[in-house]
Here is the input.
Amino acid sequence: MIGRAFLATFRAILSDSSAMMLLIGSCILYAFFYPSAYSGEVAERMPVAVVDMDHSGTSRALETRLRAVQQAEVTARAPSPAAALRLLKARQVGAIVVIPEGFERRILSGGQGVVALYGNGAYLLRTSTALAGVGAALGAVGREAAVDQAMAQGAPAPPALAMIQRPLFNTREGYGATIFPGVAFLIIQQTLLMGLALLAATMREQQGALSFAPRTLFGIALAFFVIGCANVAWFTGFVFWFQDYPRAQADPLALLVSAALFVAATVAGALALGSFFRTRERPIQLWIVTSVPIFFLSGLSWPKEATPHWLTLAAKLLPTTPGIRLMVGVNQMGASLGEQRGELINLAALILLYGAIALWRYRPRAA
Here is the structure.
């Protein structure tokens, strides 16, 4: 009975073009379409305006430093702060550097130079990238000035400590490499949920009330479980490699267990959710708009420590909340199953919860 239900489910999927596109085609398309927006990975050469009111050798040296950094590019030399502000408002530049009069004199006299930085907060990534480049240039000029001051005062050579930055896991600090490894598992969940709910609603339209024996329901769940595992293998085994996203050579057993629990929880949730839809179009209409809130609740793009506690607890009812943390931790960071124990327990609890709901909703009813 399990085998017949398993094969019948695959036949139903293959004969339904919409379900086929949702469950299989969308994962293939998203694997290449979604990462293309972040192919640049790191924002660079953000336009910056410089207002040099000092007109000294030190201010010119600072401007030269600005032209050398990767993140920022000096595209305008404004005669006044007001002129530079107009460029910022017109979005022609992402940041402004104002070097006040007396900048060099303060430094040569042993004091501290002051530079004013302005950015457009409405474009956070653009502005932060530009200001990061400006900050790097200022740091370099400041270190050179400190060494010159120390030598003039007869102090020892510059400090022996130097900071060397080595990012872990996401070595290029790219935006795509940060976001897409988590989004991939959101895509898997959403396609399974909508595809299964669509098929369930179609069967309800054709047959009326749905009822399955536990073994038949397990066969249906097994078919979707195989599809979900194939999608996980597609993303972790090929897409992450093809897009050159960071991977930590995850332990195969840890990855297998993590993927199995995540997909099983997603399928159980999809079965439970699909039992409530009566028309074929409704699952897509209602569920497709939830992708962005679900991703934010996962804690990958916004820390859970900054999320209201009640919302953090409610988010644990979604397979993606523990699933994304688990899969990214294992696949991108090389975490062990013991280190991800909380997420494993969360997923196991969701399998039991949604599995029980699905068994109750699809139980055979007395005539």
About this structure: Residues 2-39+172-361 form one domain.
